[in-house]
Design a protein that fits this description.
Elements: E1 7-10, H1 16-27, E2 31-36, H2 39-51, E3 55-60, H3 66-80, E4 85-88, H4 103-131, E5 135-140, H5 143-147, H6 153-172, E6 178-185, H7 196-206, H8 212-217, H9 223-234, E7 245-249, E8 252-256, H10 273-284
Parallel strand pairs: 1-2, 1-4, 2-3, 4-5, 5-6, 6-7
Antiparallel strand pairs: 7-8
Helix pairs in contact: 1-9, 3-4, 4-6
Length: 309
């Protein structure tokens, strides 16, 4: 993947997955605009990338406002002369069950993830269409947005909305040779470390212990396991790929399906409540769709260290 001469913006790239994406893009030759709300994290990210021989600069600002999106694109053009790639990664969590979720909890997460993706993509797409040289837009989704997750109403709504926007933007930007795709990552981060089930595996990996069951069955690895997909989708090799949701994590690479009708049935004259009630179980009962991420019980020998039973 040769990205020499390309310029990328990665939101939320001061640490974690975003930093891994920024470093991987730089490793393949791209100049990177790092973004974070934390000045120290942003400065450290730039120092890491330049220390590795890459080119980077930082914009310290929260995503969501149009002003931040404008500043990011202007910085890319002013610092490096162009814009080829946008990765919308910035995000926050405010997890709690529906009946305890405040308006602020909901609005904060939706503003950063959903509005932040919208404003940044709108600004980048406007520039890319005007420049006439195509481009790559990569939006970060989540398994929660694909299947739901307990306690994450706000996050699920935002991430599902992102994938819906990706499909729409892929249609709208096709004539401009701008591809738009979603990445659905699974990786050890500060967010997953709040979940004891996942933390035991990330802790084991940090100690250098192999965790093959988690990598294969849970698709659970580290941020570097995800970053290669972002570099690929940013490259010329992915010029014909657009409107897709691609999952990655641990040892797994997967293509998510678009929502589609699973079973259809017809009745002359249409359906009424009584006829639906009479036929629903026979028609659909065995094909009802699962909600939430399946969490298989690990065998005893898959549990790391002290977690083994």
């Amino acid at each position: 993947m040769d990205l020499t001469g390309k310029v990328a913006i990665v939101t939320g790239s001061g640490r974690g997955l975003g930093l891994a994406y920024a470093r991987e893009l730089a490793r393949h030759g791209a100049s990177v605009v790092v973004n974070d709300v934390d000045q120290e994290a942003a400065d450290e990210a730039v120092a890491t990338i330049t220390g590795d021989g890459g080119r980077a600069t930082a914009v310290v600002a929260p995503v969501g406002p149009t002003e931040t999106a404008t500043r990011l694109v202007e910085t890319a053009v002013e610092s490096f002369g162009r814009l080829d790639v946008l990765v919308t990664n910035a995000g926050v969590l405010r997890d709690t069950v529906l009946w305890k979720m405040s308006d602020e909890d909901f609005d904060t997460v939706v503003n950063v993830h959903l509005r932040g993706t919208f404003t940044c993509v709108r600004e980048a797409a406007t520039h890319m269409r005007s420049a006439g040289e195509g481009g790559r837009i990569i939006c970060i989704g989540s398994p929660t947005g694909q299947r739901g997750n307990f306690g994450q109403t706000n996050y699920a709504a935002a991430k599902a909305g992102i994938v819906g926007m990706v499909r729409t933007w892929a249609l709208e930007l096709a004539r401009a040779n701008v591809t738009v795709n979603a990445v659905i990552p699974v990786a050890a981060t500060a967010m997953t470390d709040t979940v004891p089930f996942f933390k035991q595996f990330s802790d084991a990996a940090d100690r250098g212990e192999p965790v093959p069951w988690a990598r294969r069955v849970l698709s659970f690895g580290d941020a570097d396991d995800v970053a290669g997909l972002v570099a690929f989708l940013a490259s010329d090799e992915a010029a014909e790929i657009s409107g897709q949701a691609v999952g990655i994590g641990g040892d797994r690479l997967a293509l998510w399906s678009h929502p589609d009708e699973v079973v259809t049935a017809f009745q002359d004259g249409g359906w009424r409540a009584e006829s639906i009630a009479a036929g629903f179980d026979a028609l659909f009962g065995r094909r009802l769709q699962q909600v939430g991420q399946p969490m298989p019980e690990p065998p005893a020998d898959a549990l790391p260290g002290e977690g083994k039973r």
